[in-house]
Specification:
Elements lengths: L2 H12 L14 H12 L4 H9 L2 H4 L4 H8 L1 H9 L9 H14 L2 H25 L11 H15 L6 H14 L1
Helix pairs in contact: 1-3, 2-3, 2-8, 3-6, 3-8, 5-6, 7-9, 8-9, 8-10, 9-10
């Protein structure tokens, strides 16, 4: 079976019954969109598969070991790099960790993280255009803290070099928060 198709099947099963925050949109729409963003940008099948699987370890019962067994060490490393290591920490501590980690992460991890954030920002913008300021009530932290997070993510992702997806993320973050 093709690696991307396998990732779609495993992620779909893992995220079964989950929905996007504050919506009735099945959660799997997000990882699929992340994979499509990466595919359109010309990334390899391994990176696309990692994009599709990027939230499975963080948000489902799937483990890094299972990802490695099914997809190999490179995909597992990218998924691990895109997963928050300690969900028991406060939102601020988790986000600060992500911001610092991405400054020196591999280009593959940064590409998947960027595609993830890009899809999230585009979703927020779509919701904002439909619902206005009420969109911020879906989040544990409001507009100011989301703006802090995304602005710092853009800076971290660009710490080593810039790339096409990052330029698009910069534009969307500026559009929403600046």
């Amino acid at each position: 079976m093709d690696m991307i198709e396998k990732a779609l099947q495993i992620a779909s099963q893992a995220h079964n019954g989950q929905f996007r925050k504050g919506t009735q949109i099945p959660y799997i729409a997000h990882p699929i969109a992340v994979g499509m963003i990466l595919m359109k940008a010309g990334y390899s099948d391994e990176i696309v598969a990692a994009g599709i699987l990027h939230d499975t370890v963080e948000d489902t019962d799937l483990t890094i070991e299972e990802i490695e067994r099914e997809f190999g060490p490179k995909v597992a490393e990218i998924v691990a790099g895109c997963s928050e290591p300690n969900k028991s920490l406060s939102w601020e501590k988790r986000k600060e960790h992500t911001i610092e980690f991405l400054k020196t992460a591999s280009s593959d991890i940064r590409a998947v993280a960027c595609a993830d954030k890009l899809h999230n920002i585009k979703s927020i913008i779509d919701d904002y255009e439909q619902n206005g300021e009420a969109v911020w009530s879906r989040f544990k932290r409001g507009k100011a803290q989301q703006g802090w997070y995304y602005t710092n993510i853009v800076e971290s992702l660009g710490n080593q070099s810039t790339f096409a997806l990052l330029e698009e993320l910069k534009r969307e973050v500026s559009r929403l928060f600046l």
